[in-house]
Design a protein that fits this description.
Elements lengths: L6 H4 L1 H34 L4 H41 L7
Amino acid sequence: MNDNRDPVEQYRGLRVAGMLSTAGLTLALSVAVGVGLGYYLDQWFKTHGILVIVFALVGVVAGFKQFFKIVMQANADQEKEEARDRERQGRGGRRDR
């Protein structure tokens, strides 16, 4: 397959996919860090699992906040690129190089 598009344009989908895969990883790691920190503090303060629950919830909230931030950024980037494509098509169509 011969693709004469600009490399930035050619791999745009991969960039968005990378951002979205990062979102899922960020969510999982936020929860894991919260649980780990809660477990460590439970051992230190001998609170019998209370801090694991508290920090797990904090990790979930922080993870979802970051998850939505990344998804919204990916969506905004995708919309911006689609608007550019429509603008190019409005100026006489897309030219292959």
